[in-house]
Structures are given as C-alpha cells and as structure tokens.
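USER: Study each token:
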Amino acid sequence: MDVLAKRIIDAHGGIDHWRSFKTVTAHLVQGGALWGLKGKAGVLDDTNVTVDLRREHASHAPFGDAARKSSFTPDLVELQNGKGDTIEALPQPRASFAGHTLETPWNDLQLAYFAGIAMWTYLTMPFLLAEDGVESAALGTWREKDETWQRLQVRFPANIATHSTEQTLYVGDDGLLRRHDYDVEIAGNTPGAHYVSGYREVQGILFPTKRRIYPRQPDGQSLAEPLVVSIDLDHITLG
C-alpha cells in the first residue's frame, strides 16, 4: 500500500479497528440537481442506507415509500417489499447504462444501482484503499483556496463497482479527506468534484457527515454551481 494511503487510513481509525465491524448504517438527507435531472426527484431525499463491509452490498430504505427497499450488488439490483420479497430485479445492471449521458433519465432499478455504488464507495472510503486489487500512488500537492492538500491517485479492479476505474483523493495535513474526484461512467463520464467535511467520530472511526458534489473542469478546478448532489448524514452506526 502507498505510504500516503496508509496515513489516510490510520487517520480515519486504522484498518484493524475498521475490520472489526461488518456493517455501516446511516440516515441520509439528500438534495441537488441530479435527482430531478434523472426524473427521480424526491425518491431518496430522506432515507437510510446500510452497507456491508465484507462484500459489496448496499440497501436503501425506504426507497420512495415505506413499502420498498433496495438491494444492490455489482451483479444484481432488486427492489423488495418489507418482507424482503423481490418486486423488481435487474441482473448485470451496469450494462443497462450503455449510451447514457448526464441527461438520460433513470428507472428505479438504475437509481438503486447508482445509489448503491455511491454510498458503498463513500462509506467504505478510505479503508477501501486496503482491499485486494486496489492500487494507489501519490500525485503531489494541490492548492485549493488557502489550503495545500496531498493527492492520491486510486485505481480500482474490475470486480469493484464504483463511479470510475481511476479516482483521486485529496487529503489535508491531518490525514483526513477533503475532496474525492471521479468521472461518473454510467452518466457519460461526467466529471465530479466531491467535497467532504463535518467529521464525527463514531465508535473509533471518523466519518464526514457533509458531502457536496460539483462539476469539475478539465483543469481540475471545480465550479461553484450547480450543486449536483448534497448528502447530509446522521445517526451513523457500525455493527
């Protein structure tokens, strides 16, 4: 593992402590332009998410209404009722996004896939850097406003479903993440700059509770608007 990657992981609570847990659950309040652009305004504005720390799985509940929840894995997305019975299913979901642009609407199962890869990635980062097949390398410094951040380039193996194969993390002097860049492959490779803040300690692990995602320009600078996605987290628990 890259030295910077290890420093980031240690600052967030350490890999040994992280691996003593199996799940993360959080309450989400979400906003931003993306949901309406995709024809899904309001579906996941106020929901809860649970992610599995031993395999790539996430579930949002409620999903649009109290009678539905989602189940995401890289190979299968389902919408289920309260008893866990499948209402709808989409095998090999990533293939369904072929030819999509940022403006292409999503159906509910595609929304569940996007929400699944997003929250699983966000809630397992930076500990995801220690997973088999994940490669990372320091990129040098980046100046943003009055701060200087270290950058870490990350490359994910094909078996991990996430926004894009290559992503960039930005870290402050304290080892905590400040920003997370990626291209949303399933939305026409749309570039995003994802800012994180509002860290809170939960059972010995540090989590950012405020996430704001903006468009990213070719030179790496972010635009001040539109706000693409906002995510505020509370009631975070490790199980």
Summary: The CA atoms of residues 40 and 108 lie 8 Å apart. The radius of gyration is 17 Å. The domain at 3-238 is CATH 2.50.20 (outer membrane lipoprotein receptor (LolB), chain A). The chain has one domain: 3-238.
